[in-house]
Amino acid sequence: MKKYIVQKGDSLNSIAEQFGVKDGQTLRSYHNIYCPLDDLLGTEVIPGKEILIPEDSKYLKDKMESEEEPFIEEGEDYEFGDEGQDSMDEESSEENQEEESQEEDKKEEEKRRGESSSSEHDGKYFVVQKGMCQCNQGFKFPKFKVTSHQKHYWNDADGQADYLAVTEDDLTLDPPAMPFGNCKLKPSSGGYLPCAFAPAGKWTKTYDKVKVMGKSCVTELSELMCATGGKITIFKHGQQSEAGKSHVKKADAREQQIYNPVMNFEEFQEEINGEDSFEVE
To answer: I need a labelling partner for 29 at 20 to 30 A (CA). Which of 84, 107, 128, 155 fits?
Structure first.
């Protein structure tokens, strides 16, 4: 990353434009993720303040590569004899071969990247509406609220709403207010202030090869940035089947206590084990 001292007249958008960052909001989110808690950015920048500038391509604008054509300036004469022309032809042929080789290498590299990108989702689950997500700056695990469509369900022939496929455009959470509880990026004398979830763009790292109404589907690998600075990832994909007794016995009681703090899961496990001891063979 780079560091930049804000000058008089600067704004988030002008600094983003100067360094090729996508926009001012992206610049603010990046800075808030990696800066100390007492150095968080608001909606405006202050002259003299140090800002962290991203260098990762995912935060930067796409750059078009252009190649300049060789030219001959007006007024300059060039003469070639037979020997010189043969030499030029050989050089031109070698350059063409080199360009073709570079083009083939470029296509092969793009192909490898495409294969690598698609393979990272192998063995991962698609996320459904009853799945849960988590924020690295929050404390609670809200569910999803699918608003981008009411058409496709994962592994549910009955079409229950809980199994609606989550897409890149589904940014509403359940509950909609303070979905992650309190926010670690908002410390105060009385503790952390409430979460003010504000998605910065769409879900990323989605599965582009499977789409619902033109929208890429969210998998266990997908991520979403909050404008405040939090990083949101998938906690549970939601496609788990109902747990049987064997699942209950093997379950981690501490983990289940997080999902359902009201229930004493250890006592429940003991009851299940007690029932099994009286079963007739």
So the answer is: 128
Nearest residue to 19 (alpha-carbon basis) of 71, 64, 67, 59: 59
Residues in the chain: 281
Tell me, what amino acid is at 224?
Answer: L
Q: Show the tokens assigned to 167.
A: 């897409």
- 3-state DSSP assignment of residue 259: helix
Q: Which of 220, 217, 222, 256 has its CA nearest to residue 238?
A: 220
The answer to whether residues 208 and 113 touch, using CB atoms and an 8 Å cutoff, is no
Alpha carbons 35 and 52: distance in angstroms, whole number:
7
Contact 125, 237 (CB under 8 A): yes
Question: Residue for token digits 């690295």?
Answer: 136
| Cis peptide, bond prior to residue 175, ω within 30 of zero | yes
Contact indicator for 210, 217 with CB cutoff of 8 Å: yes
Helices then strands (H, E): number in the chain?
Answer: 6, 11
Per-residue tens of pLDDT for the chain, all 281 residues:
889 998 988 998 999 899 998 998 888 888 888 888 778 888 788 898 899 999 888 889 876 533 443 343 444 444 444 444 555 556 666 667 777 777 777 777 766 655 544 558 888 899 999 999 999 999 999 999 999 999 899 987 778 899 999 999 999 999 999 999 999 999 999 999 999 999 999 999 999 888 999 999 999 999 999 999 999 999 999 986 545 555 566 667 676 666 666 567 677 777 766 654 433 33
Residue 26 — φ and ψ, nearest 5°?
A: -60, -40
Distance CA 271, CA 281 (A): 19
Token look-up 């979830």 returns: 197
